[in-house]
Specification:
The structure holds 2 protein chains of 2 kinds. Helix content of chain A is 32%, strand content 25%. By secondary structure, chain A is of the alpha/beta class. Chain A folds into 3 domains: 237 residues, 3-Layer(aba) Sandwich (Rossmann fold); 169 residues, P-loop containing nucleotide triphosphate hydrolases (Rossmann fold); 81 residues, no CATH class. In chain A, the strands form 4 sheets. A 6-stranded mixed beta sheet of chain A has the order 6-7-8-3-9-10, with helices on both faces. Chain A has a 6-stranded mixed beta sheet with strand order 16-17-18-13-19-20, sandwiched between helices. By secondary structure, chain B is mainly α. Chain B has one domain: ABC transporter involved in vitamin B12 uptake, BtuC (Orthogonal Bundle), CATH 1.10.3470. Chain B contains 15 helices and 2 strands. In chain B, strands 1-2 form a two-stranded antiparallel sheet. In chain B, helix 2 runs parallel beside helix 14, helix 3 runs antiparallel to helix 12 and helix 4 packs parallel to helix 7. Chain B starts with a helix and ends with a helix. Classes of the chains: A alpha/beta, B mainly alpha. Chains A and B meet through helix 10 and helix 11 of A and helix 10, helix 11 and helix 15 of B.
């Protein structure tokens, strides 16, 4: 029997009387990878914060090897050999890899305050080599791809002598090739005897990697067992507490022949080349591509946020030249950006202010002082919040930053619903939200299509596109390299089109750079 | 037994007191309460502080400063800052003075680059006509707004940092004001103009009515127009605002133009009160403006501000200045005390924001 390296024993924690964790017990055997899954709000983050010494449990205890483990601060966790690889990177992008690895413990020249650069560089090079990362220690983190940054994070964890490594959504911004590389390295770490906890909403990845799986729901452990006994269906049904017969709700509507958006020969040197596409009324058109394929840039051009040199965009038959986002909105377009924190929401503003933002002119008098009709506006916002089942405190007081990821995304979508647009562009609308919220976003997309909106859906999850779309276009290196109708949907040809122009997968790391 | 009883009462009393203290601290009107307590406290030691003369003095000091702070507020809400307000005051004061004055001493002004072109011993071509005052005032407002417009364009179009743009603007336009007059004050302004600074209805000065209109308009703009909402959106996140269709460049330009306009209004009030066009007008006011805004709770990080907060900030700041000057302390103590108070206000703002954030989660 394997020795348990880490043990949670009856951990409970409440915030303001709300149970976040209740009697959580499970153990992590040595050289094992444990997949920890659960919806947002299930308690994964709280549990990891307790492990990391950020929070103290109300009751229960943890054991590390044979000793009691009760960290009081994050430094205690690091000292005990526990390292966290977060979904949001904690690297200084303006510093070199070597500086990042040794930022809090630079080797010195003797007892002087000066840094011993030679030793720093050598040790860094050794660490990078152990991860098969062929980069100079002096490279600025700024210039690394998301995948490389992830590996630098791991190097940092290893450099502190970590024995237990926690991965929190490590693949969110990685390309397929980078993800595979990360998994190879995780395999290598396991062989070296490291223990790992892997948290992810990507259940396929968890299933592929995990020796054991623990499912949390509403702060309790609801299922646990060896990874090989699990299926995706079992994971989902345990996570949400009910069986989801199908992840993707059925579409009842059919696309019409009417064209709502047409793009002809759109080009911008080095970014996109000769893009042609049509989006029909009531159609969900998928746009698949690796990171750096130009899909996000294309979406931004369509919405007037980035310039293009040649080509035409026709929205509802009207030619758009020299457009800005405001013009696009007036022409009935909406854009759910991939990064809701930076471009989707005013984090410090209330739900009402966020939902109302894009439709403000529609709720004001048309002539000069443009006085707002407050009551109509707040009624409309409340209607949207209710119809989308945004879970928050009072919408006029709750700040966007205090909502969960899924609810934040609903606020972003709700903002656009206010003006009833005919054309939706959605860039990764389900990134970083839990299964339940994903399902709700899928239903919203279906409803929008049923009501006659044309939807351009960008996603790096192919299954998502195959489950939702009427048609999928594939981009690679700035060009459209394939188009598939629903009847022709199959993983292999679509991926093949996505990798067109990438001769060797191993060199595709750079393609992920933005 | 009795001991325990007393203890419980004490604890209860403390808890209640703490809750009340917390409510006051988190209240919108906190700075107003603070001002009243401060004034009341001073009154115990210096009853003459509530004398008619001093109250009139406080009032006449408040309104022009409030005009400046209102303008600054628009820019602060946008997440910017306008350091050039004081130079706008100087420039508009000089230009208005030149257009309105009835007499210029050739010995002093013959060196001015405008002598012979616009200026003569009888002032400007406008001088003495009925139109002198209205056109002079209009010119001041126009110049102030234009300088703000230039600031705004530099910040919005060319994406230069507001701090740098307005700092350069401050140097440039205060230099220009001095150059135009060769550092002389312009006297002999028409009565119709100086009365704005000295007259009023009963005890209430004209400046109060001017700033009242300005304040109400600012409040309406911020609270009840699309533009107002856009100000806050830009201040909270420019990128989100752009994606949401807010014409961010236009909004930023308008913000700086409003700041320039308000500076010109303040210049009109101050120049009228001093009965002269001064190239050095407002030179030491920058700290007062930013300080009053911060004390009022208008955040330097952008996205937060209210007309009432500006009013309370100005009230407290003017009371503080007034008390300091009444105490007849050595001259160097005044900036030291003022600086400390502004620092405390900034600290308080951070604390309140944190407490409020916690409040909402509960």
């Amino acid at each position: 029997m394997l020795e348990n390296i880490l043990q949670f024993d009856g951990i409970s924690k409440s915030f303001f009387g709300v149970r976040a964790l209740e009697d959580v017990s499970f153990s992590l055997p040595g050289s094992h990878l444990l997949g920890l899954i659960g919806e947002n709000g299930a308690g994964k983050t709280t549990l990891m914060n307790i492990l990391g010494g950020v929070l103290a449990p109300d009751s229960g205890r943890m054991r590390l090897r044979t000793a009691d483990y009760a960290p009081r601060r994050p430094a205690d966790a690091t000292g005990a050999g526990i390292a966290f690889i977060h979904q949001e990177w904690n690297l200084f992008t303006n510093l070199s890899i070597a500086d990042n690895l040794f930022i809090n413990r630079f080797p010195r020249l003797g007892r002087s305050p000066f840094i011993n650069r030679t030793v720093t560089r050598k040790q860094t090079a050794k660490l990078l080599e152990s991860l098969n990362l062929t980069l100079s220690p002096e490279t600025l983190v700024d210039r690394l791809t998301p995948g490389e940054r992830q590996l630098v994070e791991i190097a940092k964890a290893l450099s502190t002598g970590a024995e237990i490594i926690i991965f929190d959504e490590p693949t969110t911004s990685l390309t397929a090739a980078e993800t595979q590389r990360l998994f190879d390295i995780i395999g290598g770490l396991r062989e070296q005897g490291k223990s790992m906890i892997y948290i992810s909403h990507n259940l396929g990845n968890v299933l592929e990697l995990a020796d054991d799986i623990v499912v949390l729901r509403d702060g309790r452990v609801v299922d646990t067992g060896p990874g090989r006994d699990f299926t995706i269906d079992r994971m989902i049904s345990r996570m949400v507490g009910r069986a989801i017969d199908q992840i993707f709700p059925t579409r009842e509507s059919r696309p019409s022949q009417e064209i709502v958006l047409e793009v002809k020969g759109l080009s911008q040197t080095g970014i996109v080349k000769d893009i042609n596409l049509v989006l029909h009324k009531a159609e969900v058109l998928g746009l698949f591509g690796l990171m750096g394929s130009g899909r996000t840039e294309l979406a931004r051009m369509l919405f007037g946020l980035e310039p293009f040199e040649r080509g035409e965009i026709l929205a509802n038959g009207v030619l758009c030249s020299r457009i800005c986002a405001g013009d696009c909105i007036r022409r009935g377009m909406a854009f759910v950006t991939e990064n809701r924190r930076e471009e989707g929401l005013l984090m410090e503003a209330t739900v009402v202010d966020n939902v109302g933002l894009a439709a403000l002119p529609a709720f004001a008098s048309t002539r000069f002082p443009r006085l707002l009709r407050h009551r109509q506006l707040s009624e409309a916002v409340t209607r949207i919040a209710e119809s989308m089942r945004i879970k928050s405190g009072p919408v006029a007081r709750t700040l966007a930053k205090n909502l969960s990821g899924g609810n934040q995304q609903k606020v972003v979508i709700g903002k656009w619903l206010m003006s009833r647009p005919a054309i939706f562009i959605m860039d990764e609308p389900t990134r970083g939200i839990d299964v339940g919220a994903k399902h709700e976003v899928y239903s919203i997309i279906n409803d929008l299509a049923a009501q006659g909106a044309g939807i351009l859906l960008i996603s790096s999850e192919l299954e998502e596109l195959m489950g939702l779309c009427d048609r999928i276009l594939v981009m690679s290196k700035g060009e459209i390299t394939g188009g598939f109708n629903r009847a022709e949907f199959a993983q292999e040809p679509i991926l093949h089109a996505a990798f067109k122009g990438h001769q060797r997968l191993s060199q595709n790391g750079r393609a992920g750079q933005r | 037994m009795a001991g325990a009883q007393v203890h419980r009462v004490l604890v209860f009393g403390w808890g209640k007191a703490l809750a009340v203290a917390r409510r006051i601290l988190l209240s919108e009107n906190f700075v107003l309460y603070l001002s009243l307590v401060f004034f009341g406290g001073l009154y115990l030691f210096m009853p003459y502080i509530a004398g008619g003369r001093n109250l009139a003095n406080i009032s006449s000091n408040m309104w022009p400063l409030l005009a400046l702070v209102l303008g600054q507020m628009f820019v602060l809400i946008l997440g910017g800052i306008d350091l050039s307000q004081t130079s706008i005051m100087a420039l508009t004061s000089v230009i208005g003075g030149m257009l309105m004055t009835t007499r210029l001493d050739p010995a002093l002004f013959a060196k001015s680059p405008l002598w012979g072109l616009l200026l003569s011993a009888d002032g400007s071509p406008l001088s003495g006509t009925v139109l002198a005052v209205p056109l002079g005032i209009a010119a001041m407002l126009l110049v102030g707004t234009s300088v703000g417009l230039v600031n705004g364009l530099a910040v919005a179009r060319f994406r230069m940092p507001a701090f740098m743009v307005t700092l350069v603007s401050m140097m440039f336009f205060s230099g220009l004001a001095i150059y135009l007059t060769k550092s002389e004050n312009i006297m002999y302004l028409p009565d119709g103009y100086t009365r704005i600074g000295s007259g009023g209805i009963g005890l209430v000065p004209w400046s109060f009515f001017v700033v009242l209109v300005l304040g109400i308009t600012s409040h309406l703009v911020l609270k009840h127009t699309v533009l107002g909402r856009w100000f806050f959106a830009v201040g909270k996140s420019v990128r989100t605002a752009v994606v949401s269709g807010v014409p961010t460049e236009r909004v930023i330009v308008i913000g700086y133009a409003l700041s320039g306009f308000c500076a010109a209004v303040a210049s009109i009030l101050y120049s009228a009160r001093l009965a002269g066009g001064r190239p050095t007008l407002g030179q030491n006011l920058l700290l007062d403006v930013i300080g009053a805004a911060v004390i009022g709770g208008i955040s330097l990080f952008g996205g937060k501000g209210k007309v009432l907060w500006a009013l309370f900030g100005v009230l407290f700041f003017v009371l503080l200045s007034n008390a300091l000057s009444m105490l007849a302390l050595p001259f160097y103590t005044e900036p030291v005390v003022k600086g400390s108070v502004i620092l405390l206000a900034a600290l308080l703002d951070v604390t309140r924001t944190r407490l409020l954030a916690r409040e909402v989660i509960v």
